[in-house]
Amino acid sequence: MIGLILFIAIMGYTLRRSGATWPERFVNDAFGTVQGALYRPVGAVAEFFRDLGRLSDVYKENEVLKQTVARYTQDRVRYNKIESDNKRYEELLHFTETQKQFYNYKYLFAQVIASSTNPYDKTIKILLGSRDGIKERMAVITADGLVGLVSSVSEFTSTVMPITEMDPASPDVISISATISGKEDSAFGIIEYNKENGVLQMSKIDENAKVEKGDTVVTAGKGNLLPKGLIIGTVLSNQVGDYGLTHTATIQPAAKFDHLYEVMVVVAPDPDNP
């Protein structure tokens, strides 16, 4: 009974008072200090593990981004190649349609499969052969101009000798007769390649022929070796030739011999089999 009375008295006193006693304040302060000291390292550890989780997410996102960039790069390269191919095909198509208005030639499109790096034999190999109707000495061109002549033919492939590699001293060399576009009746010459200067030369031009800088040089079609009207290049200069009896013109080749992808073999109508 005494204990119950004391308990009720203490409870009543505690409920009536407005502030905490000094022992309670001491316990609260001590507990708060310990709680604050423990909160910082625990919070740091918890934040560390949260950062690890976020880092894992960032790593996964980076992997996805890398794959996306790689696919984009591949698609961009593929797109650039397709765009470049389409541009070349459009130029070739426009060229053939334009040429059909002037000459009754047939053009066989050929893929370039090899280009020799031998300085003494810079030939080009194309993926057309005898089974496709290719013959030796046929003209090979691009949309820009004359590239060379077919020098040898096998069943499935052919070798092309560029006009920049034709040796005028060779017994097998083919003389390319040329004229000036628009002046076919007065200006004739023979095309040779000057390896020292890296340009073509049109020699044996009549001294009275009016050959000027910027004139377009085309094949003359003499001797039935090459079809006429194939663009060879542009006149850079014209000077007096040997002995002062003829003139020699310097020609800038129209065709671009580096990075050849497709060429066209010109098939002219056979005069014996119309």
Automatic annotation (TrEMBL):
Alphabetic keyword roster: Cell shape
Biological role stated in the UniProt entry: Involved in formation and maintenance of cell shape.
Gene3D superfamilies reported for this sequence: Rod shape-determining protein MreC, domain 1 (2.40.10.340), Rod shape-determining protein MreC, domain 2 (2.40.10.350)
Native source species: Cohnella nanjingensis
Matching InterPro entries: Cell/Rod_1, Cell/Rod_MreC_2, MreC, MreC_beta-barrel_core
Signal peptide start and end residues: none
Family: Belongs to the MreC family.
Key word Transcription regulation present: no
The protein's name in its UniProt record: Cell shape-determining protein MreC
NCBIfam families hit by this protein: mreC
One GO cellular component, as annotated: plasma membrane
GO BP, sorted A to Z: regulation of cell shape
Domain spans labelled Rod shape-determining protein MreC beta-barrel core: 112-266
Name of the gene encoding the protein in the UniProt record: mreC
Entry annotated with the keyword Cell division: no
